[in-house]
Write a structure and sequence with these properties.
The chain is an alpha/beta fold. Helix content is about 35%, strand content about 15%. A hairpin with a 5-residue loop joins strand 2 and strand 3.
Length: about 200
């Protein structure tokens, strides 16, 4: 049971997009110890899921201090191939959100480490979207989740993968309201993207 009440089984879709965040055990980008997902449906409702991962490598004290996950925490958890392949289909059929590009890089590194296929989903960086929506934050704390938390009044526990994924999803939804339009590439089913485009839209 996770301490923030996240789902422990995957919800049923389809979803408009999935925000993804990972925590890592040490300096190795592929040493993932937690995966968090936030599922956004067409109405903007969010559901958060998180799962611990045995990184099969030592934990660095700095990382454990940051996210609170240690070798004891992940005792009995599945390794990356077990966890990732159970998530592969749902991740590979939805547009994905990440805050910065660290999460995609970590997944790529972990897939390379275990010789697994990387998802081919479209990734959107919520930092980039936040810069468009709130340009005034440049030089005033920036567009990291900690500063956006203060500026937007978000409620989440930073450095928990599920919580950070939910924050990234919230940033996207709030940015769309500020920008006055939905992000066109975030559709319910990415394989039908071009069918959803409105030829009269600007």
């Amino acid at each position: 049971m996770n301490k923030f009440g996240h789902l422990e089984t995957l919800p049923h879709g389809p979803f408009r997009f999935i925000a993804l965040d990972v925590e890592t055990a040490g300096k190795s980008a592929g040493g993932i110890c937690q995966i968090g997902l936030c599922f956004a449906d067409a109405a903007g409702h969010l559901q958060t899921y998180s799962i611990l991962v045995d990184p099969e490598e030592p934990f660095a004290p700095f990382n454990t201090e940051l996210h609170g996950i240690s070798s004891d925490t992940v005792a009995g958890a599945g390794n990356f191939p077990t966890v990732y392949m159970a998530l592969y289909d749902i991740l590979n059929t939805h547009s994905l959100i990440q805050h910065s590009t660290f999460d995609e890089k970590a997944l790529t590194a972990a897939c390379a480490r275990y010789d697994l296929p990387m998802v081919t989903s479209h990734w959107t960086n919520s930092v980039t979207i936040a810069r468009q929506a709130w340009p005034e934050l440049k030089g005033a704390g920036g567009h990291g989740l900690a500063n956006l938390k203060k500026h937007l009044g978000l409620t989440f526990h930073h450095h928990d993968a599920g919580e950070d994924a939910r924050a990234s999803a919230s940033v996207i939804l709030k940015a769309e309201k500020v920008l006055g339009k939905p992000l066109s590439h975030l559709t319910v089913n990415r394989q039908l993207t071009f069918q959803f485009e409105n030829p009269t839209s600007k």
